[in-house]
Amino acid sequence: MRILLTGASGAIGASMRGGLEAQGHEVVAVSRSGHVGGARTTLRLDDLLRKGVAQFGADAIIHLAGISHRQASATEYQSANVDLTTELARSAGPTRFVFASSVKAIGELSERPWSEDAHPAPATAYGRSKLLAEQAIAEVPDLDWVALRLPLVHSPFAKAHFAALMRLAATPAPLPFADLNTARSLISIDSAIAAFASAAAKRDARGVFHLCDRPSLSPKQMIIAMREGLGRKPNLFALGPAKHLLRLGPTRTLLEPLELDDTAFRQTYGYGARADIQSDTALRETAQKWARTSADRNGW
Q1: Where do the domains of the chain lie?
Q2: What is the CATH number of domain 2-298?
Q3: pLDDT score of 93
Q4: Are 217 and 186 in contact (CB under 8 A)?
Q5: The whole model's pTM is what?
Q6: pLDDT tens for residues 116-142?
Q7: Given CB 3.0 to 4.6 Å as the disulfide criterion, which of 65, 76, 165, 186 pairs with 152?
Q8: CA 157 to mean position of chain CA atoms
């Protein structure tokens, strides 16, 4: 397939570009400047919007671009996450349109794993912008679209909360995770790439779908898997009632349950070779790759 990829210079986008190319797809990296380091073929966003997606002979467009890992105003979220998505969708014509959405479009805390029919109640401006974008593209006439809601995505190059968690796991210090047992959905970058490729290839199955590796993991299980991947012992202790102090640090988002049910996606598209990957195995793989890339960056 020939795939137009927005957000190709971001942490997820750069891995997505490499992963899709490794599968044999031709990837055109779309950016505002028209320059994306390492990309074989690039395209200016303004040219894409002005001429329309169909003019560039693409089989699909995967839209990752937007604001996610930084604080922004409601106006910024509206412009980057809603307006741009809507404009791209309107320019897509008959081209398959795959939009990277987020679990945050539903909310921050789940009493049970959320399926796609869960009532959305986003708690943040970011989550509201993702929900508005989903609703906007659903209203574009005749658009062949799918929105994939992502949970926490982990990779050796991840930023924000996962990067902070990885750095914690890499320390030799004992960590207060022994009694953090709430279930959280997550997905490896490799599983996400497989999912997006599958959704791009299979046309006409439209709507919103949830993605995740299985099973869900608790913060305790995450740290154990990451430390195993780094060749370390778990070395955990319990904080008891004082664990709520963790809300003040990078672990604050891990103290409540947040699970997705991806049954509909598996039945409709599937993850290919990644279908049976276990969440803890995927985390160990990420930790191993993170250690190698860290060593390379530091000349070890």
Answers
A1: 2-298
A2: 3.40.50.720
A3: 93
A4: yes
A5: 0.94
A6: 999 999 999 999 999 999 999 999 999
A7: 186
A8: 12
